[in-house]
Specification:
The protein has about 120 residues and is mostly beta strands. The protein has no helices and 11 strands. The strands form 2 sheets. Strands 2, 4, 5, 6, 9, 10 and 11 form a 7-stranded mixed β-sheet that branches. A 4-stranded antiparallel β-sheet has the order 1-3-8-7, with no helix packed on it. A hairpin with a 4-residue loop joins strand 7 and strand 8.
């Protein structure tokens, strides 16, 4: 059973930075496509960024140039570095993984971590 546990969320000021982490256990992490999604109130979940097993990254347009996804296979961890955040980034951020090539991983999910952007 694959488990994903996120951390790193919290309160950040507009223009500030935050780094989210997602630690995986129970699977062969290095072969998984991993991704970060965010959930806004009353809206569909949105894919923020994903990274393949070969470290190819995908970003949704609204975060390009501000967010960076990366992975450390030795630590079974995927990161989301969030820079220059704005109030529109406020959401619950969840990581997801899939044991195959896809830019929209979604077989396994973490519970999420809240990111709040406020002065």
């Amino acid at each position: 059973q694959v488990q994903l546990v996120e951390s790193g969320g919290g309160l950040v000021q507009p223009g500030g930075s935050l780094r989210l982490s997602c630690v995986a256990s129970g699977g062969t992490f290095e072969t998984y496509a991993m991704g970060w999604y965010r959930q806004f109130p009353d809206k569909e979940r949105e894919l923020v960024a994903s990274i393949s097993s070969s470290a190819y990254a995908y970003y949704t347009d609204s975060v390009k140039g501000r967010f960076t996804i990366s992975r450390d296979n030795d630590k079974n961890t995927v990161y989301l570095e969030m820079n220059n955040v704005n109030p529109g980034d406020r959401a619950i951020y969840c990581c997801a993984g899939t044991p195959q090539k896809t830019y929209q991983p979604g077989d396994y999910w973490g519970r999420g971590t809240q990111v709040t952007v406020s002065p």
